Amino acid sequence: MSMRKPSEIQGSAWGLLTVLASTLISHLVRPYAELTDLIMIHLLGVVLIAMRCSRAVSLGTAVASILSFDFLFIPPALVFNSPDLKSGVTFVVMLIVAAVISTLNERVRREQAASRRSEATTLSLYRLAQDLNGAVRVDEVVTAGVEHIALALGARARVLLGASELSLGPDQRGWLSDQDLRAASRAWTERHAVREVGSGDSKIFQPLLGLRSPVGMLALAPDPERGTDDDDLRLIAAFAAQLASAIERISLGSAVQHAEVQIETERMRNALLSTVSHDLRTPLSTIIAAGTTLADDDAQIDGKTRTELTHTIVEAAERLDGLVTNLLSATRMESGQIVLTKSVEALDELVGAVLSRFAERLGGRLVNLDLPADLPLLAVDPMLIEQVLINLVENALRYTPEDTPLYLSARAGPGRVTVEVADEGAGIAESEREKVFDKFFRGSLARSNDGGAGLGLMICRAAVLAHGGQISARSRPGGGACIEFSLPIADSPPVLHEITEQYA
Fold it and tell me: Percent of the chain scored above 70 by pLDDT?
C-alpha cells in the first residue's frame, strides 16, 4: 500500500472536504442518532486525515471538526458554546488521537522511504558489482562506475586514475576547475572525502582507496536541485570502494601476468642459451677439430683417416643444420607466421624423400612401411610435412638401439589420413606424453649430448595443427613409443601404388 504523503495544500483541502463530509453526514443522521454518535462521525474523519496527512493538517482538521460540531450540533445551534466537561474530554481526545495517529503515520512513512532507498542502494551496488566483475580493463571499470553513479545519484561523475592525473591541462579537466583539482589533491593526501562548495554548485571528491594507497579519485558534481545527504555520501563511499577494488584487481592481475611473462621469457632465454651454448657448439667444435686436422700439412693422415674425418665433418654439419632449422622453424611458428603453401601430395613420396635423406644413418636398420594402395592424396604443405617426418624419424633413431626396427604406417579415415611413426625403444613415460610437445622439453630418457634441443616435437605439433590435424604420443603395443598425427586429404582421386614392405 502506498504511503506517499500529499502536500500541505493538498492535505488542507482534503481536511476541509472531510470536515464538510462529516458535518453533512451528521446532519443527515441527526434525527436517528445521539450526540455522541455524531461526535464519532467527526472523529472518524479526523482519523482518516491523520492516516494520510501531516501532523499540522491533522491537528487543523481536528480543530475545524471541533468548531464545526460545537457551532452546528451543540445546543443552542449556530452559536459557539462553552463545552461541558463531557464534550471537553471528547474534544481533547479527538486532538490527541489526531496527533498520535499522524505521528505514527509519519514514522511509518519515514521507515518505508528508508526501506525503499536502502533497496535502491542495494540494487545499484549489485548491478555495479555485476558490471565490474565482467570488466577486464580499467577503462571498462571507469565507464561502468560513471554510468551507475549518474543513474543512482543524478550527478556528473569522473574518475581520475593515479596521482599524475590530478594535474590536468585546461583541455583535459572538463568541468573541473583549479580549485576543484586542489580539493582533489587534498582528498588524495588526506584519504577521505572532501566537499568543495563553489559558486552555484558543489563538488565531492572521494578517493578510491586500495589496500596500500589510493588508486584514483572519484569526482562528482551533484544535481543542485536534488542535493546530497548523509545516505548519498555513504552510497558514494560504497561506489568508490567497489571501483577501487575492481581497479586494484585488474592492476594486480596485469602485474601477475607481466611477472609470469617475464618468468617464461627468462626460462625460454635460459633454455635457448643452453641449446646454443651446448648443442650448437658441440658440432661446431667437431667440425673445427676435424677441419683443422685435415688442413694441417704436417699431419700424417692416411686415406682411411681422411675419409673418416670428412664423414665426421659432414655428420656434424648435418646435425648443425638440423638444429638451426629447428630453431628457425620454432621461432617462425611461435610468432604465428606460418603460411601454408598447400599442394596435392602422395604420402608415399613424402616418406620416400625423408627415408632417402636418412639412408646412410639407417644402415642395416629395418623400416617397416604399411601404406595402403588406396591411400588418398593429401592437401598439405610438403616442406612442413617433410619436416614433421624428419623430426619423428630423427627422434626414433636417437632414442632406440641400432638393431631395432622402425615402423611407419598410415590409414585413411573420414576426410583425413592418420600417420603413425613407432619404434621398439624404451617409450615415453605416461606423465610426459603431453609435455614432450612443449618447447625445449626433453624427456627423462634424453641424454645431454645426444644432439637434441627439445624442439622437434614442438615443431611437429605446430605444423600438424596448422593443417587442422591432431598429434599425440602413446605407447606402442609390444613396447616402444608411437607418435600419431592426422592430415587432411585432397579432393583428387588416389594414386594406386601399394607399399607394404621392409625398407633397409
Answer: 77
Report the CATH number that the domain containing residue 215 is assigned in CATH: 3.30.450.40
What single-letter DSSP state applies at residue 54? -
- Together in a domain, 108 and 162: no
Q: Are 239 and 204 in contact (CB under 8 A)?
A: no
Tell me, yes or no, whether 65 and 155 share the same domain. no
Contact in structure between 174 and 203 (CB atoms under 8 Å): no
Number of domains in the chain: 3
What Rg do the C-alpha atoms of the chain give, in angstroms? 46
Q: Tell me, yes or no, whether 485 and 348 share the same domain.
A: yes
CA distance 20 to 70: 14
Print the domain residue range for 144: 132-248
Among 325, 332, 247, smallest CA distance to 280 is for: 325
Same domain, 164 and 108: no
Same domain, 136 and 105: no
For the record, the C-alpha cell of 110 comes out as 519515514
Same domain, 347 and 494: yes
- What CA–CA distance (Å, rounded) separates 185 from 100? 51
C-alpha–C-alpha distance, residues 395 and 455, integer Å: 11
Model confidence over 467-483: pLDDT tens digits? 889 999 988 888 889 99
The answer on 488 and 393 residing in a single domain is yes
pLDDT tens per residue across all 504 residues of the chain: 444 556 778 878 887 888 888 888 888 888 887 777 777 787 787 788 777 777 777 778 878 877 787 777 777 767 666 666 666 677 777 778 777 877 787 787 777 777 777 777 777 777 877 777 777 777 788 888 888 877 777 777 778 776 555 545 444 456 677 777 777 778 777 777 777 666 557 778 888 887 777 778 888 877 766 667 777 788 888 888 888 888 878 777 766 766 776 776 566 556 555 555 555 666 777 888 878 887 777 666 777 787 888 888 887 787 677 667 666 666 665 555 567 788 899 999 999 998 988 888 887 789 999 999 889 999 998 888 988 898 899 888 888 888 899 999 999 989 899 999 999 888 888 888 888 887 767 665 555 445 455 677 887 888 888 888 999 998 888 888 999 999 999 874 444 444 444 444
The Cα–Cα gap between 46 and 96 comes to 11
* Position 126 in a domain: no
DSSP 307-347: HHHHHHHHHHHHHHHHHHHHHHHHHHHHTT------EEE-H
DSSP state of 165: G
Domain containing 465 — which CATH number?
A: 3.30.565.10
3 state SS of 468? coil
- 45 shares a domain with 191: no
Pairing label, strands 416-423, 406-413: antiparallel
